[in-house]
Amino acid sequence: MNTTVPAPFDVKLMNLTASVLFVALALMLVSAVAMWASRHAVFAIRAITVTGDVTHNNSVTLRANVVPHLSGTFLTLDLMQARQAFESLPWVRQAVVHRDFPNRVRVQLQEHQPVAYWGAENESRLLNNFGEVFEANLGEVEQDNLPRLHGPDGQAAQVLAMYQTLQPPFELMGLGLEQLELTPRGGWRARLDTGALLELGSGLAPEVLARTQRFLQTLTQVTSRYGRKPEALESADLRHQDGYAIRLRGVSTLAAELPKK
């Protein structure tokens, strides 16, 4: 009968020590190879390829504003840091950064698409098609007919949605919705390209749209009574429950003062 004799404790200890040393040596070897590879010239970043929206950024601006913030090689480049460097550029909304083995970096950019100016007249902020506010050089805006929207901080997307709801009815009347503001009290105020100022009242989009449509459907009839066209509108207040009040250029509702005897 075969009997297995347990290995002495010192033998077990030696085997364990040898195993630990072997693992440590292997890790050191892997680390040394990785460090050598990370510093090897073959992995130095040779080129950065940029695709996507590059209307407002060219190779000169990218080289001047992004490359100084990139460090490391193909293997050690921090992709998150690289993405943030690209997204810090004016007009860049989003950047997706990839490695291309063995020494190239590929970046896809998405630029802001401006749909409106945001804030007061003296501000340089814009609103993109996602309802996000961003800052850029207004001289680089290619569109020359962007509306100006305004409202409390954090409400930009809501104001843009309301503008997109109200703009078509005004356009059908041949009137341009030039400005739209959400006041701190929740009221909506608009200015047309004719200079007319409109108080649209408060409420959700369907309520404001319904009041606006009722107003526009009768505006031509009302202005024609005074020999005017809708373009003569100076101001309107739609906050009345059963109607609205308007003021027309060149039309006064005040009785002429009688001459004194």
Structure characterization notes:
The protein folds into 3 domains: 12-41; 44-111, Roll (Ubiquitin-like (UB roll)); 114-248, 3-Layer(aba) Sandwich (Rossmann fold), CATH 3.40.50. Helices cover 32% and strands 25% of the residues. The chain has 261 residues and is an alpha/beta fold. The chain has helices at 9-39, 59-65, 79-87, 156-172, 205-224, and strands at residues 47-52, 92-100, 104-111, 114-118, 125-128, 133-135, 148-150, 177-182, 187-192, 197-202, 233-237, 245-248. The strands form 2 sheets. Strands 6-5-4-7-8-9-10-11-12 form a 9-stranded mixed sheet, covered by helices on one side. The chain starts with 8 loop residues before the first helix and ends in a 13-residue tail after the last strand. Helix 4 runs parallel beside helix 5 (205-224).
Please give the count of helices: 5
The helicity comes to: 25-40%
Give the terminus-to-terminus CA distance: 146 Å
CATH class of the largest domain: Alpha Beta
Strand content: 15-25%
Structure summarized in a few sentences:
The chain contains 5 helices and 12 strands. It is α/β, with parallel strands linked by helices. The protein starts with 8 loop residues before the first helix and ends in a 13-residue tail after the last strand.
Helix and strand arrangement:
Layout: H1 9-39, E1 47-52, H2 59-65, H3 79-87, E2 92-100, E3 104-111, E4 114-118, E5 125-128, E6 133-135, E7 148-150, H4 156-172, E8 177-182, E9 187-192, E10 197-202, H5 205-224, E11 233-237, E12 245-248
Parallel strand pairs: 1-3, 4-7, 7-8, 10-11
Antiparallel strand pairs: 2-3, 4-5, 5-6, 8-9, 9-10, 11-12
Helix pairs in contact: 4-5
